[in-house]
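About this split. The held-out portion is used to measure sequence recovery: a designer receives only the structure tokens and must propose an amino acid at every position. Recovery is the fraction of positions where the proposal matches the reference. Here is one held-out target exactly as it appears in the evaluation file.
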């Protein structure tokens, strides 16, 4: 949801139902963004847009306090751990921070604290002020001086165990040997990447055929949360300490005293930290750090003020997920002025034409920006969602001087056009009505939901469009799909251009005979180009022969790794397999629903083919999957209606074996249990009941013994029921069984 499309209604004017509906929708949206941000390291909205959603959510909750539950987002932080690492509970929760955006809000923060503590306005009250670094927080547990655990924040209560990874970070001591270190000491701080290191990682990333990382924060999070700690070691992560969790005995009585101790014990601590004695001094420090922001060499997004006296911190305590004694004073997004040299059109996997502004490179807060998204045709024309005006209706043209904004986490945006700098001979941008990749018509469909023209213009070429094909292949190997080690988007392009990979199945035959040599050649060619570009960019002469030979040595390794990565994916979870197919509207959640429901790709395919042939029962089977809906069902059926899609799948299945979803078995309440059905079942046939149980990971047996876990008995059950009673087993009727497995195990 874009905050611009948030309902315009003031919260006070919402009725109860409206408020409830919007509150629930916002919760779902925010959770999704949290998961994208914290677990996927791939945010979709800017921090400012996220904050706007969040404020609206909090406003509604403020007006309707009954809506809040323990799971309310105002009481939790971040996202649940991703499941890739073991979880660990924090002895002391890791919290979030309240936010201030204006000087007045900072003054109010000081006043609020004084009211709470009953301190007169002129009583002394000191605060520390230090930069809020944009990385990810980490808790390090030391026992008797030895580092025993490193845990990410996760949802604040429970985080991910990344101990081996943290051990590879040079700023993190394995041993605290200084005098006076508490026996139990949880040190908390931030893991981050400097701009320079981030740029170097991206250079390597691109040279290895992978997608560049969006920004330093994502780079830091992705580097730390590697399953292989050796990868983390190869990334120059930095850590600084600014807080603590469980401590057996506090070694100081003030915030600045504690930070001094952390420095004494061997940690890097915040740069530019100052002890302030008034709101004016706090704001002065905020301005000072703001002026230095671009030269710090790493991303910050605000200044954190903390009450200095720890006894006062203790008295102030917490409100839900935020300490009352601290606040983050945020900086606005960083803005720069540059020129649009060109407008490129990218064609996505589903044919969407997305315009991208190619900018005269400009440094925004330390990061060089070359591209900015222009969203869609209407955005360029100055028309916003809902037909409202953007930028006062000014359009965007090639040659325009514009202000752009880099808001921490997303692709830079164009804010305003400086009309006084517009060249006299400029012309409005003519958005293409044919696909730049394949020449097919590109159309804006009628959107049945809004009743208006879709904002997105799409290529109608389908799989005849090379751009769509390449994007689908990229999707196929992407992180939440096949996630093939060593095969990123750049290599897909290279292999496509070389004619080696035209469909997913082709990936799995790259190692065969001549194809292997050709793969190697193609990759070598591309890497040489990249090396030359890099040298050119660094204003050096072309790469020397010796340099190239050295890189060529690595070549062989790249191809070996690539082929090993491919081999490792010959079996894959069914849910990932379905997601990888890139069917419109079938994202990860729907892929999981389908995997659970059908249990095999063959069952899904056959049902879809029957539905495509007009079999209403088969169609009903899809609709019956809670949460799927008509639009998705139609999209699925459409795919299997087409011969070439069926052929593509058949070819792929010759190479790859999808495995039923493991999560089903472990998540279901009957996983691993032995079940016996006896007597007459009324709602289910015996076969259905058996299939259902097996799908949920249970074993179905014909006879009752001490090894039986559950006996489902219908009317007319006889000796088996009696035996179950004698053995004291769990007995239930059919309704009880259905309730236990959740209405058919389709959820
Ligand atoms: P937020 O997640 O935006 O509510 O802000 C809280 C987070 O800010 C913490 O979990 C830390 O990751 C981060 N942070 C960065 N620098 C600091 C700092 N100097 N003091 C406290 N938190 C910080």
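Reference sequence for scoring:
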């Amino acid at each position: 949801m874009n905050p611009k499309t948030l309902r315009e209604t003031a919260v006070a004017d919402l009725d109860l139902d409206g408020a409830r509906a919007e509150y629930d929708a916002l919760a779902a949206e925010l959770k999704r963004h949290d998961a994208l941000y914290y677990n996927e390291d791939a945010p979709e909205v800017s921090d400012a847009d996220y904050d706007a959603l969040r404020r609206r959510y909090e406003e509604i909750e403020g007006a309707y306090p009954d809506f809040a539950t323990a799971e309310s987002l105002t009481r939790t932080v971040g996202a649940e751990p991703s499941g890739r690492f073991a979880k660990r509970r924090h002895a002391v929760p890791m919290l979030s921070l309240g936010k201030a955006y204006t000087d007045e809000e900072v003054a109010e923060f000081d006043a609020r604290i004084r009211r709470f503590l009953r301190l007169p306005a002129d009583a002394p009250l000191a605060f520390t002020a230090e930069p809020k670094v944009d990385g990810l927080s980490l808790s390090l547990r030391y026992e008797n001086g030895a580092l025993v655990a490193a845990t990410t924040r996760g949802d604040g209560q429970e985080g991910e165990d990344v101990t081996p990874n943290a051990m590879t970070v040079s700023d993190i001591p394995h041993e605290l040997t200084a005098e006076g270190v508490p026996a139990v000491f949880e040190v908390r701080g931030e893991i981050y990447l400097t701009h320079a290191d981030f740029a170097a990682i991206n250079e390597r990333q691109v040279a290895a055929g992978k997608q560049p990382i969006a920004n330093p924060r994502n780079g830091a999070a992705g580097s730390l949360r590697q399953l292989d700690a050796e990868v983390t070691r190869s990334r120059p992560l930095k850590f600084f300490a600014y807080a603590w969790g469980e401590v057996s005995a506090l070694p100081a009585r003030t915030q600045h005293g504690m930070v001094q101790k952390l420095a004494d014990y061997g940690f890097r601590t915040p740069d530019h930290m100052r002890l302030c004695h008034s709101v004016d001094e706090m704001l002065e420090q905020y301005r000072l750090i703001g002026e230095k922001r671009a030269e710090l060499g790493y991303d910050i997004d605000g200044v954190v003020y903390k009450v200095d006296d720890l006894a006062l911190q203790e008295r102030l305590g917490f409100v839900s997920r935020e300490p009352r004694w601290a606040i983050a004073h945020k900086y606005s997004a960083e803005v720069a002025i540059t020129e649009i040299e060109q407008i490129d059109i990218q064609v996505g996997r589903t044919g969407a034409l997305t315009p991208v502004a190619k900018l005269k490179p400009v440094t925004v807060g330390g990061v060089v920006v070359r591209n900015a998204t222009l969203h869609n045709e209407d955005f360029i024309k100055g028309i916003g969602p809902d037909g409202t005006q953007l930028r006062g209706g000014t359009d965007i043209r090639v040659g325009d001087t514009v202000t752009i904004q880099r808001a921490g986490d997303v692709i830079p945006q164009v804010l305003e056009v400086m009309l006084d700098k517009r060249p006299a001979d400029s012309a409005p941008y003519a958005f293409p009505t044919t696909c730049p990749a394949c020449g097919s018509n590109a159309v804006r469909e009628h959107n049945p939901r809004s009743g208006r023209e879709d904002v997105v213009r799409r290529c109608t070429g389908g799989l005849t469009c090379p751009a769509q094909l390449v994007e689908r292949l990229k999707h196929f190997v992407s992180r939440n799909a096949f996630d093939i080690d060593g095969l990123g988007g750049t290599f897909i392009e290279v292999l496509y251009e070389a004619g080696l990979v035209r469909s997913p199945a082709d990936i799995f035959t790259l190692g065969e005979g001549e194809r292997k040599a050709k793969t190697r050649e193609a990759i070598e060619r591309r890497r040489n180009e990249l090396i030359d570009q890099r040298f050119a960019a660094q204003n050096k002469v072309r790469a020397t022969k010796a340099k190239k030979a050295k890189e060529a040595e690595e070549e062989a390794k790249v191809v070996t790794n690539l082929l090993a990565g491919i081999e490792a994916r010959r079996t894959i979870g069914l849910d990932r397999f379905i997601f990888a197919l890139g069917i419109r509207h079938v994202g990860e959640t729907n892929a999981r629903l389908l995997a659970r429901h059908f249990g095999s790709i063959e069952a899904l395919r056959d049902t879809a083919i029957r539905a495509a042939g007009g079999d209403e029962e088969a169609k009903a089977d899809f609709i019956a999957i809670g949460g799927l809906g008509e639009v998705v069902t139609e999209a699925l059926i459409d795919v299997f209606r087409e011969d070439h899609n069926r052929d593509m799948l058949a070819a792929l299945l010759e190479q790859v074996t999808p495995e039923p979803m493991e999560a089903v078995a472990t998540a279901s309440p009957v996983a691993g249990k032995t079940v016996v059905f006896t007597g007459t079942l009324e709602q289910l046939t015996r076969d259905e009941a058996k299939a259902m149980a097996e799908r949920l990971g249970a074993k179905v047996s014909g006879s009752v013994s001490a090894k039986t876990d559950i006996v489902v008995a219908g009317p007319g059950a006889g000796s088996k029921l009696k035996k179950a009673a004698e053995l004291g087993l769990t007995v239930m009727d059919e309704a009880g069984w259905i309730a236990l497995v959740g209405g058919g195990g389709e959820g």
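Annotator remark: Confidence is low (pLDDT under 50) at residues 1-5, 662-666.
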